Amino acid sequence: xxxxxxxxxxxxxxxxxxxxxxxxxxxxxxxxxxxxxxxxxxxxxxxxxxxxxxxxxxxxxxxxxxxxxxxxxxxxxxxxxxxxxxxxxxxxxxxxxxxxxxxxxxxxxxxxxxxxxxxxxxxxxxxxxxxxxxxxxxxxxxxxxxxxxxxxxxxxxxxxxxxxxxxxxxxxxxxxxxxxxxxxxxxxxxxxxxxxxxxxxxxxxxxxxxxxxxxxxxxxxxxxxxxxxxxxxxxxxxxxxxxxxxxxxxxxxxxxxxxx
Length: 260
Known about the structure:
Elements: H1 2-15, E1 19-20, H2 33-45, E2 53-61, E3 66-69, E4 79-81, E5 89-92, E6 105-111, E7 117-123, E8 126-133, H3 154-172, E9 177-183, E10 199-205, E11 216-225, E12 231-242, E13 250-251
Antiparallel strand pairs: 1-3, 2-6, 2-9, 3-5, 4-8, 6-7, 7-8, 9-10, 10-11, 11-12, 12-13
């Protein structure tokens, strides 16, 4: 159960980041984590004083395109927009292959030695700095480890999780959206908490987004050690789809279960 709640915490953290359903472009260029991380690191290198280390990454494979509002880390850890990003929202492409492990849209979160956070978006293979967040109230992120260079690419991890049940879920549900998330782990052992070690999480959901959200739906979640590729656990849940103002929507019990 510890592993389950940890993976849920990893993915649930994204849902508070300000992602809002909308309409986006139909065409897209999808890339894997390794490509997205490379272009994001290049974009971050010259921003402010530099020294950025990647600590989290999320890729979205959405059944329908969406509009991305400028994220926030909460009122006590405000985001400061990069030049040209004031009040902006990014058009986030849709993608029709949720189980491929590649995405047209990635969120990359960096941190430097002073504790400042930097958010970079990679859309259709091109990176853009969204802004940074800093201050003594950004409490969680100093305990987050950097993502090691030895982590497996998203394509390899998603393939392993598909063998462990993901492919069967995709085959039995249409119009699925997915999210892949990678964290470097944490230095604290609180419960519930994000994983201690570098971990990939994969989520598939049939609930839909915004106006197309279904009344009921199902979800599959799996997570794996990010350096060995060993699948740690998988679970499925179903029920009433909940509209949390973010995307994609999930069954109402998705964040509360312990796996059997």
